[in-house]
Specification:
The protein is of the alpha+beta class. Helix content is 25%, strand content 33%. It has two domains: 2-204, Bira Bifunctional Protein, Domain 2 (BirA Bifunctional Protein, domain 2, 2-Layer Sandwich), CATH 3.30.930.10; 212-254, SH3 type barrels, CATH 2.30.30. The strands form two sheets. The protein has an eight-stranded mixed beta sheet with strand order 1-2-3-4-8-7-6-5, with helices on both faces. Strands 12-11-10-9-13 form a five-stranded antiparallel beta sheet, with no helix packed on it. A hairpin with a 2-residue loop joins strand 7 and strand 8. The termini are far apart. The protein binds biotin. Residues 23-25, 49, 52-55, 58, 60, 69-71, 114, 124-126, 142-144 line the site of biotin (BTN). Keywords: Ligase.
Length: 256
């Protein structure tokens, strides 16, 4: 473990750099279940994850040493369980605040928490919450960002990286420091209760908001328009002049 010179108050002030691990999220979970005290904002990063985990039990594959794969340990005790999607908004925005200066406004959030550049995925987030009663107690915020990887094999039509887009390589430690700073800023806005600001910013960066587009729902291709996101995190779509809510399992985006 080492202390850092990150320009933050707490996110990344303690950082554990691992050369290889199953998953940085699992590593944090294991530390917590062994009652190891962790400072809020501790970052665990790995050069290589051999069992990286994604949303919906998917695997997260990332070439060793080429990308950012890290987890941030947070204690959002001020958030009720039924407001947990607010944390997701703050984290998505923190990542975007770090990437937009490099990638511009084509860098978007694909609901609920994928990071996209145009129609290609460049990053993903896996937040695992530990609750106590009706409140959140601890959160493990896992983030995978494609940075210097150039080959995506059979995923190349829907995955990309900073270096593929901008034709240069990036220093992973510098980028991590920058993204920790922008995440901390958004997390502090969340803690200060600036929910309207976070919501407005989240919606303004949402891929396909207010534009008709194709979705697959119940096995059928449907044209719908994203209106907004409910407090429960469900996507609200306008379909034939009606507003309908969907969770992640109920729809897929179709990009041509
Ligand atoms: C997704 O888009 O499916 C979420 C991907 C999250 C990947 C990150 S990499 C660091 C952390 N450790 C994991 O095992 N997963 C997350």
């Amino acid at each position: 473990m080492q202390n850092n010179t990150f320009l933050t108050l707490f996110v990344g002030q303690t950082i554990v750099k691992l050369s290889a691990v199953n998953s940085t999220n699992t590593y944090v979970k294991d530390l917590l279940s062994n009652s190891k005290p962790l400072l809020e904002g501790t970052v665990i990063m790995a050069d290589h994850q051999f069992a990286g985990r994604g949303q919906s039990n998917n695997v997260w594959e990332s070439k060793a040493g080429e990308n950012l794969t890290f987890s941030i340990y947070l204690r959002p005790v001020f958030l009720a369980v039924n407001h947990q999607f607010e944390l997701n908004k703050a984290i998505c925005l923190g990542i975007l605040d770090g990437l937009i200066p490099l990638l511009g406004d084509a860098c978007k959030i694909k609901w609920p928490n994928d990071i996209y550049y145009h129609y290609k995925k460049i990053g993903g987030i896996l937040i695992e919450n530990i609750t106590k009663g009706y409140q959140l107690k601890e959160s493990i915020v896992g983030i995978g960002l494609n940075i210097n990887q150039k080959e995506f094999g059979e995923l190349s039509h829907r995955a990309s990286s900073l270096s593929k887009i901008l034709h240069q390589n990036y220093d992973l430690a510098d980028l991590l420091a920058q993204i920790c700073k922008t995440i901390e800023k958004r997390y502090l806005q969340l803690k200060a209760g600036k929910l309207d600001l976070l919501n407005a910013d989240y919606l303004s960066h949402l891929l396909r908001i207010n534009k008709p587009g194709l979705f697959k729902i119940d096995g059928k291709e449907i044209i719908a328009t994203i209106k907004d996101v409910g407090a429960n995190g469900h996507l609200r779509l306008i379909i034939d002049n009606d507003i309908k809510e969907f969770d992640l399992k109920e729809l897929t985006f179709i990009f041509d």
